[in-house]
Amino acid sequence: MSIVAIDTHEVVQELKAAGFTDAQAEAVTRVVRKAQDVDFSALATRSDLAITKADLQLDLAEVKRELAKAKGDLQREIADVKAELKSEIAEVKAELKSEIAEVRAELKSDIADLKSDLANTKAELLKWIIGAVGVQTIVILGAVIALTRTMLH
């Protein structure tokens, strides 16, 4: 931006010619002059902006590298956790198979014991039934003999 110097005396004269009073013309000229006295040293120049842009691009590149590294680290961690979980699942699976085999063996043993107990109970029942039939037969024969003797006498 270039600043143009103004001739304040000429501005005052033009304003007076336009109908401004001396005080009004001088006041307007002072305001215009103050507006020109702005300090532009704090404004960024194109070279300032170029430097800032370059710095930002370097920072962005660094952030991208860090993100890529973090992504790689996370992917490795995920792969490690995945491998650990697979290993643990395989262990649990093996343990469950073993426990299932034990339970099956116990159940087969219990079933065999129940079959044996059932066979023994069946044999005992047959003994009792045969014994009861035998006793009933003897009682009936005894009653028939007793009846026959009483009828014959």
Would you spell out the secondary-structure blueprint of this structure?
Layout: H1 8-17, H2 22-36, H3 46-152
Helix pairs in contact: 1-2
Could you explain the architecture of this structure?
The chain has 153 residues and is mostly helical. It has 2 domains: 1-42; 44-126. The chain has 3 helices and no strands. It has helices at residues 8-17, 22-36, 46-152. The radius of gyration is 59 Å and the shape is rod-shaped. The mean pLDDT is 91.
- Series of secondary-structure elements, N-terminal to C-terminal: HHH
* Cα-based radius of gyration, to the nearest Å: 59 Å
**Given the structure, what is the number of helices?**
3
Class inferred from helices and paired strands: mainly alpha
Q: What is the β-strand count? A: 0
Classify the beta-strand content into a percent band: under 5%
Features of the shown structure:
single chain, 153 residues, 2 domains, mainly alpha
How would you summarize this macromolecular structure in one to three sentences?
Helix content is 86%, strand content 0%. It has 153 residues and is mainly alpha-helical.
